[in-house]
Amino acid sequence: MTTTQDRPAVAKEIGQERRRKEDQRLITGRTRWTDNIVLPGMLHMAMVRSPFAHAKITSIDKSAAEASPNVVSVLTGADLGESQGVLINAWAITTDQVTPTHLPCPIDKVSFAGEIVAVVVARTQAEARDAAELVDVEYEELPAALDLKKSANDEVLAHPDLGTNKSAFWKFDSLEAGTGSSIDEAIEKARTDGVVIEREYRQQRLIPAFMEPRSTVVDPTGEQITMWSATQVPHILRFALAATTGVSESKIRVIAPDVGGGFGGKLQTTPEEWLTFAIANRLGKPVKFTETRSESLMVAHHGRDQWQKLTLAADKEGNVLGLKVDLLADLGAYVSLVGGGVPVLGAFMFNAIYKFPAYQFNCQTVLTNKTWTDAYRGAGRPEATFGIERMMSELAAELDMDPLELREKNWIKHEEFPFTTVAGLEYDTGNYEAATALAREMFGYDDLRAEQKRRRDAGDKVQLGIGISTFTEMCGLAPSRVLGQLNYGAGGWEHASVRMLATGKVEVVTGASAHGQGHETAFSQIVADRLGVAFDDVEVLHGDTQIAHKGLDTYGSRSLVVGGEALVKAADKVVEKAKPVAAHLLEASVDDIEFEGGRFTVRGTDQGLAIGEIAAAMFSAHDYPEGMEPSLDSEATFDPVNFNYPHGTHLCAMEVDTETGAVKMRKYVCVDDIGTVINPLIVSGQIHGGLVQGIAQALWEEAVYDDAGTLVSGSFVDYLLPTAADTMNYEIDHTSTPSITNTLGTKGVGEAGTIASTPAVVNAVVDAVRHLGVNDIQMPCTPERVWKAVNGVGAGGEASTEGAAAAHFDPATGMEGTTDRTTGGTQA
Amino acid sequence: MIPAPFEYLAPTTVEDALAALAEHGEDAKILGGGQSLLPVLRMRLNAPEMVIDLGKIESIRGIRDDGDAIVIGAMTTHAAVGSDPLVAEHAALVSRAVDHLADAQIRHRGTFGGALAHADPAGDLGAPALALGAQFVIAGPGGTRTVAADDFFIDLFETAIGEDEILTEVRIPKHTGWGAHYEKFVRVAHQWPIVAVAAAVRVEGGVIAEARVGLTNMGNTPLRARSVEEALVGVQATEDAVREAAGKAADGTNPPSDLNGQASYRKHLATVLTRRAVVTAAGG
């Protein structure tokens, strides 16, 4: 513990399993979701969307829609012209990145199925939707760039005017960077007298599938234009609106009211937001747009979608010599806010916790005619962690070593921290041995290995596999100077202020923007300890640019480690301001004033004042020190010098039914080192939820397009989101090596479970059937893929599922019976 | 999403419902529990002008013992069927299928008759109804008629119910003392079965005396695996003995290919699941 010196001696709240103060209203829904906001005279929008992945718009006939009841306006891209603004990419990963212009409503061409071609505005949502069906758009279909690998070869162009689908090529080489040796020599050496593992892995496309669909309300009737949006990034949204519409930033107020989840899916600036803004301004009336679930699945940005070619070189004793990564990353139709940068975040993580002497990362981002991709829980790090953790298990299998022993042989030892990696990051703290030892014990590793052997020897129909993931990640986005070096379009600081109210209550304002994480509870706990006030006396305010005027919002597991530290610094300033006041009122020297447990006392006496009393005294301001302003309120902006690096050991046991390919989780244990834990209950929730999302990538979720570029998995019938019924009791625990990049000693936890769990599960499934000749099963590991791999049919490759939706709600096949009464089946 | 506008009627008698159906003809849709129709309307895959809700017709709700059959009113919810002691005793296969049908919310809103009339081949009730030889009582302008299960399911989402008719009740012949099991194969709990097998067997002295096997999602309609049934007669109720008969489960089937599996994989699954269903039914 190296970071305790700044902490107050009495820490009552930090570490408490406080139930979340925000849950009552969030869980009951009796709160301010954006779609609950109703303004006088408010109009409603519905979108007309392209059914084609790539087409010219040849004509749009609006007349029938315009004549529909209570329709106020029907607008096309041509009607809106420059007034609609443009959507920005804030992270060009190279200076020569090819970035297509991204209009919210394109004028003459659509570039993915679901793109907006016209907007209907009506007095009710139902009337807008009815009229949207009456807009008659004629298209001339164009060949669509759909398959990632083919698109990387420019066989069909997603944007013919750009002349290429290749957006940017980003490279890191340890020899060039001076952080390591030559990868080519490492691989060459291993080919001669060691082992080289070469694999290609698919990171399937995923849909964030947040609980609350996106919604935007814009009220242009005040002096400021107010936008409510279900967003993770109100501050970035305001900046981007101002930057692209010509409206002064000071004339825009953005409010993210209660927001129902994001997982990165609301880390975006969207066409729908831009159109609501433009059309509300054009009509001079409040306007609302709320997407349907179908729209959300189709056009809210997707995540992942990579091919990873990996080459791992090692000697015969299992010491790693080098890692080479060749990535293809599917951007979709546009380079979204930070979409191009997501795979680059993985560049620093493929080497993970291991001491690679040589490393090379090559990433080609590719434009296609599909929904654009961007951050999804973990953003770049799950992809990297999957790649390296699968490869380490493959190397162990190749060398017939225990996969835990192989990892231990290569990982950074706890006494070696701080450690500068081959990717150039300095890991501050960690103890992989401790986390692994605890996980191993909780899991009953040796017993399960013995059972696995028994089942193999007996030829059981149900085989057992054990999967390992010893992960780390970089989070707490982030050091502004580092982001600058990566050509990222913003900094990574966070802002907080503390307001001491006359009644002794405390208002805390944070620039982080919670959307389900529990900031209001955790931040209250921090402030309660820091100022020695009651937990219930702290109110956390956020998500409104008029209240939290400065901030960089919530993503990348940054809120606590960056925003929480800003809060600590602001609270400490309050204490420093209060000290001379206390001295003045107690008629003592400032040097004799001590602060503990919310009271300022004069050293060596029993004289003292509570911080609330000083706040009240400053409110009345009848008697305070000369030369001082009558306020205790303080603010702080914190910019960390480094990311922080949570890590953990995840162990998973899977049962595989070799007759059907069905997989069943038997046991899941994880020990995460996230440094100091503020609220163990919130942490458990983050870990459990994160695990389920990572497990879902391994087993269930995949966004699939057909040959025409239509999203086949366009509803929850075909996009298999797990429910509580599909989960089990995950056994979680923690070791703690506090971070030294913030004074609380915290590390990010929001993405850890998702990053770590996917490879643990797939490693377990492969381990269960490796003795049957299987060394890979493509994600999601469907029963069919597993069965085919076991039976040597297609080795679980991509060809093993049809690009077709189930028939239940498919208009092409399924609904004849319901649409046509003469064929019967009418009673549903 | 919001459905397209429609008119709504909630008659209290079958006669009034039939009259409304006669009046509105093909512009009308019948609403049972709404668990399939409402999503269809909300996704705007269908836009009927009239929705006739059967929810207020008490005469077609409930379960009764009618001598050699258990009679289930079309508007009885799945939850009511699943918790009914008569069904459990005399038509255990139906109880087993309902236990895992969709999720708890759907089981409390969805109706037995509505699901069968919707005739989704992946629905959980068709195979048990077919296996147990259910009879479908259908009311029309000319009175009621009864259709055997073998004649009820015609094609994808298509049944013998005419456009001016309403399914009022389902009669399930008693299979008292039979063992039953519904083997359902899913990836996540709430999805339609990729394949499921409904099996009921009568075992005498460790030997299968009679067997009924129905298949879910193995074609455009629920299917009855008669060749399996025949092959099971006289077979020991053990896994090895049942294996050969179960191997015929995919004969003559035409299952779909979709994101959950190709037809060939479903055919393989059908044989494995049939074996497991029969063995479990025989043992239980």
Q: Brief description of this entry?
A:
The complex is a heterodimer of chains A (828) and B (284). By secondary structure, chain A is α+β, with helices and mostly antiparallel strands.
CATH architecture of the domain at 168-204 and 303-476 and 642-800 in chain A: 2-Layer Sandwich
Task: Enumerate the strands of the largest sheet of chain B in spatial order, edge to edge or round the barrel.
Answer: 4-5-10-6-7
Class derived from helix and strand content of chain B: alpha+beta
Percent strand of chain A equals: 15-25%
Q: How large, in whole angstroms, is the Cα Rg of chain A?
A: 28 Å
Oligomer: heterodimer
Q: Shape of chain A, please?
A: globular
Q: What is the strand content of chain B?
A: 25-35%
Question: What is the fold's blueprint, element by element?
Answer:
The complex is a heterodimer of chains A (828) and B (284).
Chain A (H helix, E strand, L loop, with lengths): L22 H6 L14 E7 L5 E7 L1 H4 L4 E6 H4 L28 E2 L5 E7 L2 H8 L3 E6 L6 H5 L13 E8 H4 L5 H11 E13 L8 E5 L5 E5 L4 H12 L6 E4 L15 H13 L3 E4 L2 H7 L3 E13 L4 E13 L9 H4 L12 E10 L13 H19 L3 H8 L8 E2 L5 E2 L4 H12 L1 H14 L3 E11 L7 H6 L8 E7 L5 E5 L8 H13 L6 E4 L17 H28 L6 E4 L2 E4 L5 E3 H10 L13 E5 L8 E11 L5 E11 L6 H20 L31 E5 L16 H18 L13 H8 L25 H4 L9
Parallel strand pairs in A: 1-12, 10-11, 14-15, 20-21, 27-28
Antiparallel strand pairs in A: 1-5, 2-4, 2-6, 3-5, 7-15, 8-13, 9-10, 9-12, 13-14, 16-17, 18-26, 19-20, 19-25, 22-23, 23-24, 26-27
Helix pairs in contact in A: 12-21, 17-18, 18-19, 20-21
Chain B lengths: L6 E3 L4 H11 L3 E4 L5 H6 L7 E4 L9 E4 L2 E5 L4 H5 L2 H6 L1 H8 L4 H6 L2 H7 L7 H6 L3 E6 L2 E6 H4 E3 L2 E2 L6 E8 L5 E7 L9 E10 L2 E10 L6 E2 L1 H7 L6 H8 L16 H21 L1
Parallel strand pairs in B: 1-3, 2-3
Antiparallel strand pairs in B: 4-5, 5-10, 6-7, 6-10, 8-9, 11-12, 12-13, 13-14
